[in-house]
Specification:
The structure holds two protein chains of two kinds. Chain A is mainly alpha-helical. Chain A contains two helices and one strand. The radius of gyration of chain A is 18 Å and the shape is elongated. In chain B, a hairpin with a 6-residue loop joins strand 2 and strand 3. Classes of the chains: A mainly alpha, B mainly alpha.
Chain lengths: ~60, ~300
């Protein structure tokens, strides 16, 4: 029973904190948005489509 | 905030760019560094909404999903489609020049590119000259310190901290008083104060004084300012009395109920001030076994 509780607690923590901790200062972008990495391509696409560029700057911690 | 599904309406309204630095100086890291340099970025993490043509920042996304979506709405209304890709081509050509300097740190090429129209190219040129010909950088310091880009000005300050060119003192003092067009004014001030330790004179004392005596023991600028004042007094004996008077006021006031961290930083700054006073005056005064509001007062009196 205790083991089961621990497993459930672990799963809950992972599901709440997982996406954040996995991406904070990570080479992998956060899930969801259609991230790109090439500034030149991004700028061209934004110019053509008339959209702003959203830049997320992060680093290794 | 970024993995939040509430941001889904913004997925198609902006073009999403992820810039990650690991400081390995690999090709990918260099590319990420060039983007950070272009936007004058020196602290992480940061979110910017940018106009793709002018590359000006057009929005602050804040830290909540709701603010993010509002900022995207406002920024999107300010950007229109463009038939011309000229600005992208300009950046591409500039990147090529910057990469040329990354591969070949040639002084003659760096001298030419230091006056380039593109900030990333200028930075790469500055970086090369700072390493190979720092006096050439110091000779142009006045105009270089006016460039509104933090990493660029940090690099100029770093050179001046080594060369100690007194002709740059006024420009450095101006930055300390008013770090204009900076995304990171506290750090820019810190770099300028560090340079003033080598370049400054009596006039610099009054400019640095408010930061040395601010009592902000958690801010590195305070300790940096204390060290800079002691260095100026060492080089310029005429500044000694003024420096001593500022340092006496710079013993930090301990909080009424300090946390362990506050206690540690407060004590560390007090000891730094004390050592600086001993260095400047040539006198030895015992530091109390316990640093508190009462012993702080006695220390100030003892000078």
């Amino acid at each position: 029973m205790n083991l089961m509780r621990h497993a459930l607690l672990g799963l809950t923590i992972a599901s709440v904190c997982g996406p954040v901790s996995a991406t904070a200062g990570s080479e992998t972008p956060p899930p969801g948005a259609p991230w790109q990495r090439d500034f030149g391509k991004v700028q061209r696409e934004a110019l053509r489509t008339g959209k702003p560029i959203f830049i997320y700057f992060t680093k290794t911690y | 905030m970024l993995p939040d599904v509430a941001l889904k309406p913004a997925y198609s309204r902006v073009v999403w760019l992820y810039v990650f630095r690991d400081f390995s100086k690999s090709a990918a890291d260099r590319a990420a560094e060039r983007i950070a340099l272009r936007f004058g970025l020196t602290s992480w993490p940061q979110h910017l909404l940018v106009d793709p043509d002018s590359l000006r920042v057009v929005g602050d996304t804040g830290r909540t999903s709701q603010r993010f979506l509002s900022a995207v709405d406002r920024a999107a209304s300010r950007v229109k489609p463009s038939r011309s890709l000229m600005s992208a081509e300009r950046v591409q050509r500039a990147d090529a020049r910057a990469m040329e300097l990354e591969k070949n740190r040639n002084v003659a090429l760096a001298g030419e590119y230091l006056a380039d129209a593109d900030i990333v190219v200028r930075f790469r040129a500055l970086e090369t000259l700072a390493e190979k010909q720092p006096k050439a950088v110091a000779a142009q310091a006045l105009q270089l310190l006016r460039v509104p880009n933090d990493p660029f000005r940090y690099e100029v300050c770093k050179v001046l901290a080594k060369t100690g060119d007194s002709a740059a003192a006024d420009a450095l003092q101006q930055i300390v008083k008013q770090p204009a067009n900076s995304r990171n004014p506290n750090v820019l001030r810190m770099r300028a104060v560090t340079a003033l330790a080598a370049c400054g004179d009596q006039d610099s004392v009054a400019v640095i004084a408010p930061f040395a005596s601010s009592g902000q023991f958690l801010n590195s600028l305070t300790a940096t300012s204390v060290s800079a004042l002691a260095a100026i007094a060492d080089r310029r004996p005429a500044a000694k009395n003024a420096v001593r008077d500022v340092l006496k006021r710079s013993y930090p006031q301990p909080p009424a109920k300090p946390t362990a961290v506050q206690q540690r930083y407060c004590l560390s700054l007090a000891k730094k001030v004390h050592a600086a006073l001993q260095q400047v005056t040539g006198r030895q005064v015992a530091f109390p076994a316990e640093y508190n509001r009462s012993t702080r007062g006695m220390l100030i009196q003892s000078w």
